[in-house]
Amino acid sequence: MGGSGGLGADAGTGKCAAGCGSGELCNSGECVDDPCAPNSCAAEKACKPNSDFTQANCLPSCADVTCSAGQTCVDGACVATGCAAACAANEVCASDGDGGYACVPDLCQGDAAGAPCGIGETCEPASGACAPDPCNGVKCPNGQACGAGECRWVGDASNGDAGVLDASSE
Question: Which of 35, 58, 75, 139 lies 20 to 30 angstroms, CA to CA, from 98?
């Protein structure tokens, strides 16, 4: 899902602009070994690189998980988003800066969307800025695709749901 609109991005620059070699992926503008290549996880598990792309983690998929309003699936389990109810279309649940959460406009959609993000990046909906793509390097079980860092069935409308965003970390 990388390459969505974002602010301050130049998709044509960086050491990954020409692409990475077999068994590599782009992380923070550098080609690095893909810890999930080859995928050593069981068929029903998602393979996700750790934060520094040095280790593979085999984690449950969200494909068969249904969460209540105010929750999102993370690694096969429902967790609270912080918002009391589901956000409307073109909104995301984000930190309000005062210790709470609120639905805010998705700054990556429609007229608010900025320039495309670079390789291995995606647009952060609460800020509109480019950030590392949480699906970068994720290998999903057959018939599933990664959206917002989680594996779901292909065609699942929630696949692009950004879940909760922590604006305080930006």
Answer: 75
